[in-house]
TrEMBL record:
Transmembrane segments: none annotated. Coiled coil: none annotated. The keyword Secreted does not apply. Residues 20-262 form the ABC transporter domain. SUPFAM superfamilies: P-loop containing nucleoside triphosphate hydrolases (SSF52540). This is ABC transporter ATP-binding protein. One of its GO terms (cellular component) is plasma membrane. Keywords: ATP-binding, Nucleotide-binding, Transport.
Amino acid sequence: MPDCGQNIGESAGGTVMPLLELQSVTMSFGGFKAINDLSLKFERKPVYGIIGPNGAGKTTLFNVLSGFYRPKRGRLLFNGQDMTRLRAEQFARQGIVRSFQITSIFPNLSVMDNVVLSVQRRADGGTKAFAKIDWHEDHRPEASALLDQVGIPSSLRGRPAGDLPYGRKRALELAISLGAHPTILLLDEPTAGMTTADVSRTTDLIAQLSVDRMIIVVEHNLGVIANVADEIIVLQQGALLTRGRYADVRQDPRVIEAYLGKRH
Ligand SMILES: Nc1ncnc2c1ncn2[C@@H]1O[C@H](COP(=O)(O)OP(=O)(O)OP(=O)(O)O)[C@@H](O)[C@H]1O
């Protein structure tokens, strides 16, 4: 392969290519535009937070970014590659992985085997999701390390995943996602429904995980966003209202109005 002297993420012209880019994306439901002609660039920052009032289009955007929705109009580029027509599992194989859908946990499998399965799936290129347990042995060390990383103690790892308390289930979901070796990790309301202690643990974990990968978080809890996000993207009515550091965004009168209404 010829060496063109080009770094990953750098275009031929020397300008830095966004890791992820939306170009004029519209996502409609029965004629209603939940996302309307939205263009966004995600550079290589560690943590982006997506916020906005109810109905702003956060979940829809999240579903587009993770390949769960395919927009009718516009394009989604990952490292310059057009992802628009790909499916969610192809996104995951390329390195865009979403977490915090407890539905992806197999409740009857042990906590450890859930993570082993994820590591296995990645190692096999996503082709043998329901493999026999005996070839899991090779993947136990990595699975153990991932469970260490998300703070699930050894005493819980042999238990059926379905028996874990809520906060631990979400940590397990994160370990499962990390087994896919994401370049971009998408977190959908990572602290929803958590106790204060779990919120604090999850916030620390997001910061720790962001050292090695980009994280995009959709979150209602602005305290969490303030703590973890390097840049905030504010949506309103399916469009970009503004973006920037939390300290600046929270003082923006348009953002205050969007959240609280004109009277405030
Ligand atoms: N599957 C769907 N079918 C019809 N309308 C939808 C669908 N999904 C979202 N919408 C509409 O699109 C708009 C944006 O919804 P979305 O869930 O993306 O907003 P959100 O910012 O995540 O809101 P919330 O903060 O309330 O979760 C809303 O008006 C919603 O009713």
